[in-house]
Design the sequence.
């Protein structure tokens, strides 16, 4: 594994752990940041995204470990550049953040609460954000042909 990926992943993991602790300690009562649009609210999620597979912690943990392995194997086929390093770092840090939370508590702490155009988006956390941004960055890399070392070198 690339040393930069390891360091950035650990930073993402550390930020995720610290913010979840802060959420646990400070956001039991929701705190409005921008009116009704953006607030911090403590919530627990026993499932995955949008609470799918609720109370299936063991299954979600197994899926997370398998996905970590797949992402690691898949990362070797990408051109090494700053965007791809960041993408894989965010994925590792985010997946590990939620996995560790589930391993120690059987749930994930969520606290970022956004309501846009009367849609109350499911509450999420830093790890979730890191995973989504990492996936978006990988999609960009795939569109640019950087998902295959040979293709990436020929462009």
Sequence:
């Amino acid at each position: 594994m690339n040393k930069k990926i390891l360091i950035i992943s650990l930073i993402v993991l550390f930020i995720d752990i610290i913010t979840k602790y802060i959420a646990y300690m400070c956001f039991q009562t929701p705190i409005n940041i921008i009116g009704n649009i953006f607030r911090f609210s403590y919530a627990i999620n026993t499932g995955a995204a949008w609470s799918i597979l609720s109370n299936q912690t063991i299954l979600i943990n197994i899926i997370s470990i398998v996905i970590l392995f797949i992402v690691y194997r898949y990362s070797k086929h990408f051109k090494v550049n700053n965007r791809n390093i960041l993408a894989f770092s965010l994925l590792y840090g985010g997946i590990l953040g939620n996995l560790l939370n589930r391993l120690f508590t059987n749930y994930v702490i969520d606290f970022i609460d956004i309501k846009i155009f009367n849609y109350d988006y499911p509450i999420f956390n830093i790890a979730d954000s890191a995973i989504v941004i990492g996936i978006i960055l990988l999609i960009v890399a795939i569109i640019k042909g950087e998902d295959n070392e040979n293709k990436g070198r020929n462009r």
